[in-house]
Amino acid sequence: MEAYLYEKLDDNKVRCNLCSHQCIIKDGKKGICGVRENRSGILETLVYNKVIARQIDHIEKKPLFHVTPGSLSYSIATVGCNFKCRFCQNADIAQFSTVNRVSIPGKYSTPEDIVDDAFKTNCRTIAYTYTEPTIYFELALETAKLAQKKGLKNIFVTNGFMTREAIQMIAPFLDAANVDLKAFNDDFYKTLCNARIEPVKEALMNMKSLGIFVEVTTLLIPGLNDNPDEIDQLASFIANSLGTETPWHISRFHPTYRLTDRPPTPIKTIIDARQRGFKAGLKYVYTGNVPGEEGESTFCYACKKCLIDRYGFQVKKNLIKNSRCPFCDALIDGIEL
């Protein structure tokens, strides 16, 4: 299938304008993502209709805590990614196209198939997740259009390395996104992800300006992005540039993939970062990969009462009524709370 968002150049080259790498791709070559190929001056997507992973998840697993809490989300992915994160948790599929020089795997699935399955399984949302939805943009966009017509919500779980054009194209059909803000220094992005931070910051602000509900996730890795000053800067950016209503998830790192020389993040570091988020003015700050901590639950920012009691990805109790705190009537930000 011909890809969206590219331009033709001289000598049968093309420029992909989907993600912020904006790869210039020679004839017969692929972009950094490994799943968009120049074929005689036409950029083709290699993953349309090729779903490598599908799962019915609790929406809290995304993590999205302020979008239809306690509901199920039909989650899909294709192979490929435009990042090369050394700590990738889904490297077997995200990095497949660059590590394995074979045909692109995946089960044939049309947008109609995906939406029908979501309905049959009582899901309220479709999540484009696991790898990077930007690189299977065509499938995500066409599925999202159908899902919206059927009354389903659409959510991206993304690294946020998207062009303004891509965000503008998906925005009318995208209800929410959880965006990884992996650190607050460009060296981290360059060294560990083969990317840059500024396009991610710009994409976050673009999403907010277009009415997409945004939640942010940061995986704290010992010695790499857990400096208290950097955490303060990151929290301040979320509060001042995205809004204090933006939920921030601070997750605990465990050694994985190509980053196994670091220990798991101390729980104290996660708890301290949460407090720094509150100090920056954020209303909702959560801890991830630390089951049993109060940072899994949603508290009213005004009266401090527990409104959504969670353990892991399970909602044990939800007291919010019509997006309001039942104790003080404060407005709780989100979608269909």
Describe what this molecule looks like in 3D.
- This protein has 337 residues and is α/β, with parallel strands linked by helices.
- It has two domains: 40 residues, no CATH class; 248 residues, TIM Barrel (Alpha-Beta Barrel), CATH 3.20.20.
- The protein is 26% helix and 23% strand.
- The protein has nine helices and 18 strands.
- Strands 7-8-10-11-12-13-14-15 form an eight-stranded mixed beta sheet. Strands 1-2-3 form a three-stranded antiparallel beta sheet, with no helix packed on it.
- Strand 13, helix 8 and strand 14 form a beta-alpha-beta unit.
- It is globular and about 65 Å long.
Question: What's the layout of helices and strands?
Answer:
Layout: E1 6-8, E2 14-16, E3 24-25, E4 36-39, E5 42-45, E6 50-51, E7 53-58, E8 72-77, H1 91-94, H2 96-99, E9 107-108, H3 111-120, E10 125-128, H4 137-149, E11 153-158, H5 164-170, E12 176-180, H6 186-193, H7 198-209, E13 213-220, H8 228-242, E14 248-252, H9 267-279, E15 285-288, E16 298-299, E17 306-311, E18 314-318
Parallel strand pairs: 8-10, 10-11, 11-12, 12-13, 13-14, 14-15
Antiparallel strand pairs: 1-2, 2-3, 4-5, 6-9, 7-8, 16-17, 17-18
Distinctive features:
alpha/beta; single chain; 337 residues; TIM Barrel; 2 domains
Question: Can you give me a brief rundown of this structure?
Answer:
With about 325 residues, the protein is of the alpha/beta class. It is built from 9 helices and 18 strands.
What percent of residues adopt helix (DSSP H or I)? 25-40%
CATH class division of the largest domain: Alpha Beta
The largest pleated sheet is described as: 8 strands, mixed
Radius of gyration: 20 Å
